[in-house]
Amino acid sequence: MTESKIRELLKLVAARRMSPAQALNRLRHLPFEDLGFARIDNHRSLRRGVPEVVFGEGKSPDQIAAIGRRIAASGVNLIVTRLAPDKARALRRKLPRLDYRADPQIGLIVTTPPEPRGHGTVMVVSAGTSDIPVAEEAALCAELFGNRVERVYDVGVAGLHRVAAKLEDLRAASVLIVVAGMEGALPSVVAGLLDKPVIAVPTSVGYGAAFGGITALLGMLNSCAGGVTVVNIDNGFGAALAATLINRVGLSNGSE
Question: Are 211 and 204 in contact (CB under 8 A)?
Fold first, then answer.
């Protein structure tokens, strides 16, 4: 249940086109719906402006399908992250409307296309081509959360002329999500050149001493460019949500 749908219900009741009992029945599953193995947070869109996102890893296709059916039935867009290809194939047999994006490993059922909000563009920047799956998780989630999103990929520090060539584009963004593995240096470079919020995403890309992303994570946490915000390893979703909230700061909630 979204804010706009609740607003529509209240207007219908006020206009006497719907009875209070009918409206109450529509709202019956707020603030959450108990499925026994999961409690779906139907109230999250009202509290935070973005829907609950399902973390697919560790859940069975049957569990995801049951959750997905209820989320889709409530009129909220279904977003499933960390959805492996084999699990997605099994899930599509249960949810035929599921749209699967292979690079970010995200499954979608878009009931209501998101309308762009926010002060400007969220720019997603990747250091290398190998970082694109995490960058695409961030970019796709940011789009689904109602942001205008642009992408600049493969501009890592091994060739600084590549990111230098895109500086004017980067300056035009309201918020930047910078995704990097290996030593994780790109967010420091970008933050040192721009006066915009930079959200750094370490990836698990790299050889043995990258320690599955820990080296990039520590490098970003120790950035000498002040103001870099760091999320967890491979957490494109978390970066997208943080960027969304930053991009909306100060906007009216549309209350009447």
Answer: no
Contacts of 162-165 with C-beta under 8 Å, sequence gap 24+, read 163/125, 163/189, 163/190
What is the distance between the alpha carbons of residues 226 and 39, in angstroms, rounded to a whole number?
Answer: 39
Least confident of 14-28, 103-117, 130-144, 187-201: 14-28
Give the 3-state secondary structure of residue 80.
strand
Give the three-state DSSP class for 241. Answer: helix
Strand partners, 103: none
What's the predicted TM-score (pTM) here?
A: 0.83
> Regarding the domain delimited by 121-248, which CATH topology (the fold level of the hierarchy) does it fall under?
Rossmann fold (3.40.50)
pLDDT of residue 97: 92
Q: What is the pLDDT of residue 112?
A: 83
Can you tell me whether residue 123 is helix, strand or coil?
A: strand
CA-nearest of 213, 252, 256 to 117 is 252
Q: Which own/partner contact pairs does 247-250 have at CB distance under 8 Å and 24+ positions apart?
A: 247/117, 247/118, 247/119, 247/120, 247/122, 247/147, 247/174, 247/175, 248/49, 248/117, 248/118, 248/119, 249/119, 250/119
Domain with CATH 3.40.50.1970 in the chain: 121-248
User: What residue type is assigned to position 147 of the chain?
Assistant: N
Determine contact, residues 147/115, Cβ cutoff 8 Å.
no
User: Which range, of 52-56, 217-221, 244-248, averages the lowest pLDDT?
Assistant: 52-56
What confidence score (pLDDT) does residue 42 get?
67
Phi, psi of 31 (to 5 degrees): -85, -10
The share of the chain scoring above pLDDT 70, in percent, equals 87
Class of residue 191 by CB neighbours under 10 A (exposed 0-12, middle 13-18, buried 19+): buried
